[in-house]
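TA notes, week 10

Several of you asked for a full example with nothing omitted. So below is the full record: structure tokens for the whole chain, then the designed sequence directly under it. When grading your own attempts, check the secondary structure regions first.
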């Protein structure tokens, strides 16, 4: 006769897992492509959402490396953002292509608190050093722009290819 009460107790005893820690665990327990879909011939090994997160992470790390600020603690800022945006994009899968711009802005904000402005504008040679902004803030194909000069500087992930030039490619 004590079956139901036991079940209730067990349900209550389940550990509460936050989205953040769950995402972290998932990251460590799934180091590579999962072959669960191999039998039906599709290439859904990591899925479009996970792919967008991988891409965002790679793009922002590339921009950090271009500015030689890809230290270990800075990389962890990127990881923190990716974990949060994984939760975000799972709630709103249509936003997958916005993730790169969002991660770039997350990291920019985190760096501003700890280190200062990033990335510094490579276009304006004189005047106060200022940071570039991501445009669109919430949209696909994000770019770094200088509002002072009114120019697109580079796509997110391509800061390393600008080398301070002003080419309008
Ligand atoms: Zn500028």
């Amino acid at each position: 006769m004590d079956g139901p009460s036991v079940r209730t107790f067990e349900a209550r005893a389940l550990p509460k897992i936050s989205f953040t820690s769950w995402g972290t665990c998932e990251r460590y327990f799934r180091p590579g492509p999962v072959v669960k879909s191999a039998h039906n011939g599709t290439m859904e090994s990591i899925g479009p959402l996970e792919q967008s997160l991988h891409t965002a992470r790679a793009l922002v790390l590339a921009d950090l490396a271009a500015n030689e600020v890809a230290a270990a603690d800075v990389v962890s800022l990127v990881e923190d953002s990716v974990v949060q945006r994984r939760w975000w994009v799972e709630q709103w899968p249509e936003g997958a292509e916005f993730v790169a711009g969002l991660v770039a802005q997350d990291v920019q904000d985190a760096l501003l608190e700890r280190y200062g402005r990033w990335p510094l504008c490579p276009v304006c040679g004189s005047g106060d050093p200022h940071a570039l902004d991501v445009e669109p803030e919430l949209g696909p194909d994000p770019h770094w722009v200088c509002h002072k000069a009114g120019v697109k500087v580079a796509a997110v992930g391509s800061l390393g290819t600008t080398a301070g030039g002003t080419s309008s490619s």
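Confidence is low (pLDDT under 50) at residues 3-44, 164-169. Use that as a sanity check on your answer.
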